[in-house]
UniProtKB/TrEMBL annotation:
It comes from Rotaria magnacalcarata. This is Beta-lactamase-related domain-containing protein. Keywords: Signal. It comes from the Eukaryota. SUPFAM superfamilies: beta-lactamase/transpeptidase-like. Residues 1-17 form the signal peptide. Residues 45-369 form the Beta-lactamase-related domain. Pfam families: Beta-lactamase.
Length: 391
């Protein structure tokens, strides 16, 4: 086993203005992966990042983890390995795993009607909605008219969704369910769970704790001080309308962190996000942890439920979904087929490459909302990693 090379000193560099800046970069890199350091540092040199972390698992072991920059705009506290980060829709992959565990244990079925578990859902044209429709964004409920403060109320949100009329006949088309996905999938888990736990409790007890992850939907209040606040990049602020800016601002509030908004308020770090994806495709830590999904379930969750070239009714471009995961074959062609995961608004991402036994995660506090999938901050890293493991 290769020993780790620890970066013990901060990496200092000069920015374009020639002012010396300490980027607070620390982490752990195993031999052969040193090339990622300069690529990660480059984001700080060019002011793309304020604070961020990145991690890769390869062959079930941590290949590298880096963190750097600042906890917030005051630049008085470093972004370090104790920092936790809101990752928006990168949370959806965790929710997909929770549903998959229910399927694996036999108390959920992707092909079953939602009404088997949630009888009141079968109203106003939703009677034939399947679990798979919800997981693959085919349920026809891509949006909600609820005020932002209602997002904190699980019962109110699920009641609204069970009474809502779908925008299109469920199963006939797909369109990204940016927030509604979480309450829909989460309510299925809650109702099917023999212990009737909330989704956040289920995730802690069945996923995060057994895998030694820090990944929360419903943050314990005592951890709030570790959460780095999100901010919009200048070009993102210029491109968004006031309602979107208000929504993003809401996600900085402790009340939003402590609620369960499963499509978007997961709080974690890059190490845990990469470890989650590695746990789906590999043993971890020299066999100490076995994959949490069996091969048959993994094949189910990563099989496309989107017809070829079908247009996403929200994004108006083709997108491809399995059971809760974005399928990245066209997004990351350098890895070949089978890559799956999920992005989050502003640039966070977690994904797995089963054929290479590799997982990747990037989280950050500065949001760039101008790209859909391959954020410029990870593009060069991903390309170099694909080249490296392809040798």
């Amino acid at each position: 086993m290769l020993s780790s090379v620890c970066i013990l000193l901060c990496i200092a560099s000069s920015v374009i203005s020639d002012e010396t800046t300490d980027y607070n970069i620390h982490g752990t890199i195993t031999p052969g992966w040193n090339f990622v350091l300069d690529l990660f540092k480059d984001n700080f040199i060019h002011d793309r990042d304020l604070g961020a972390s990145v991690a890769v698992y390869h062959q079930g072991r941590l290949a590298f983890e880096l963190w750097g920059g600042w906890f917030d705009q005051s630049k008085t506290q470093p972004y370090d390995n104790n920092t936790l980060q809101l990752v928006f829709s990168s949370t959806k992959g965790l929710v997909a795993v929770a549903v998959a565990i229910g399927v694996q244990r036999g108390y959920l079925d992707y092909s079953a009607l939602v009404t088997r578990y949630w009888p009141k859902y079968g109203q106003n044209g939703k009677e034939n909605t399947t679990v798979a429709d919800i997981l693959s964004h085919r349920a026809g409920l891509p949006d909600t008219s609820s005020p932002l403060e209602q997002y904190l109320n699980w019962t109110a949100m699920t009641k609204e969704l069970e009474e809502q009329t779908p925008t299109w006949p469920p199963g006939s088309a797909h369109g990204y369910h940016a927030l509604t996905y979480g309450w829909l999938a989460g309510e299925l888990v809650r109702r099917a769970d023999p212990k009737k736990r909330s989704l956040g409790q289920f995730i802690q007890e069945e996923i995060s704790n057994p895998l030694s992850l820090e990944f929360y939907i419903g943050l314990p209040i005592e951890l709030e001080h570790r959460v780095s606040p999100i901010e919009l990049s200048e070009k993102s602020r210029e491109s968004l309308n006031e309602s979107n800016i208000a929504l993003i601002s809401m996600f900085n509030k402790p009340s939003a962190h402590q609620a369960e908004i499963p499509a978007g308020n997961g709080i974690t770090n890059a190490r845990s996000l990469a470890r989650l994806y590695s746990s789906l495709i590999s043993d971890l830590d020299n066999g100490k942890y076995k994959p949490i999904l069996n091969d048959n379930i993994l094949k189910l969750v990563t099989k496309s439920n989107t017809p070829t070239n079908e247009i996403d009714q929200v994004y108006q471009v083709p997108t491809t979904f399995g059971m809760g995961f974005v399928l990245f074959d066209d997004i990351f062609p350098e890895f070949g087929s089978g890559t799956f995961g999920h992005t989050g608004a502003g640039g966070s991402i977690g994904f797995a490459v089963p054929s290479k036994n590799l997982s990747f995660a990037f989280v950050m506090n500065r949001l760039d909302t101008t790209t859909l999938y391959v954020d410029i901050r990870i593009k060069s890293m991903v390309a170099k990693i694909a080249e490296w493991i392809g040798k």
